[in-house]
Amino acid sequence: MARYVPTAGFESFTGALSKKKDYAHRLVTRRKGVKDPITGEVVGLGPKEIYAQEPRDYKKHPLTQGEVNQRSKWKEACRAAGAIIRDKSHPRYMELYSLWRAQLTDKEACMQFPNFVRAVVVKELP
Questions:
Q1: Minimal CA–CA distance to 121: which of 84, 87, 71, 69?
Q2: Which residues neighbour 85 within 8 Å (Cβ) at sequence distance 6 or greater?
Q3: How much is the pTM?
Q4: Can you give the C-alpha Rg of the chain in angstroms?
Q5: Which residues, listed in sequence order, are joined to residue 15 by a DSSP beta bridge?
């Protein structure tokens, strides 16, 4: 994903660059806003990004065994993280929340709380 600097008048442009079925149609721009899950406070904005949507042809390029393993591990981590994120009384919620808030000052911080939880959980899996 590339970052870009828009010209005047296009600072908040989001979405596809074209409606025609050409290369510009697959280019998408976005900038994610980040909110604190408890207070609702906006803690920052992500970078301005532009990327090309190119769906994978699974008949030509099927998943490798490593990709299958990674997907199953990620699916398990997402399931476990979802249980934590949805339930604020979960034993790990406040622990992970305080870790997330502490790392927000870092230049390479994970801005989205759900993404942070998933990343921590996936690292803990065997």
A1: 84
A2: 37, 93, 113, 114, 117
A3: 0.69
A4: 18
A5: 29
3-state secondary structure the chain: CEECCCCCCCCCCCEECCCCCCHHHHEEEECCEEECCCCCCEEEECCCEEEECCCCCCCCCCCCHHHHHHHHHHHHHHHHHHHHHHCCCCCCHHHHHHHHHHHCCCCCCCCCHHHHHHHHHHHHCC
∠12-13-18 over CA atoms, to 5°?
180
Residues of 103-117 as b/e, b for ≥16 C-beta within 10 angstroms? eeeeeeebbbbbebb
Q: Are 110 and 119 in contact (CB under 8 A)?
A: yes
pLDDT at position 29 is: 81
- Cβ atoms 16, 28 nearer than 8 A: yes
pLDDT above 80: residue 22: no
